Amino acid sequence: MMKIEHLGIAVKELAASIPLFEQLLNTPCYKTEEVASEGVKTAFFQAGEGKIELLEATNDNSPISKFIAKKGEGMHHIAFEVENIEAEMKRLVALGFELLNEQPKNGADNKLVCFLHPKTTNGVLIELCQDKR
Ligand code: ZN
Predict the structure, then answer these.
(1) What is the Cα–Cα distance from 30 to 33, expressed in whole angstroms?
(2) Spacing, Cα 95 to ligand 1 middle (Å)
(3) β-bridge partners, 42
(4) What is the pLDDT at residue 1?
(5) How far is the centre of ligand 1, averaged over its atoms, from the C-alpha of 109 (Å)?
(6) Secondary structure tally for the chain: helices H, strands E
(7) Which residues of the chain have pLDDT under 70?
């Protein structure tokens, strides 16, 4: 069984959305981090055992720019924590899920990540993440 690690929300401007989510969740943003390889700047909030990740694009080719151009701001992905990301990727491919990256890649928050194509997951972008050890 997988546990929800965080929910990713695409936003136009962290500068506007960080204070908004601090008010909403009644907790301070505890970390911001740029992931240059993905063209995003992220901001994290604790929400119970899970987290909220806000994502702002840092360039026009960022997946977040494309997402916002198409759908506007909003829910972007659900991230599930896994123990062994390579084993999970293999398991899911064998079941017919389509991976967006063939190898785990570096994500925010010191994690290895892999995304599943939304067309094989009822339209929801899914992220698998594993703590780097
Ligand atoms: Zn994420």
Answers:
(1) 10
(2) 23
(3) 33, 55
(4) 85
(5) 9
(6) 3, 8
(7) none
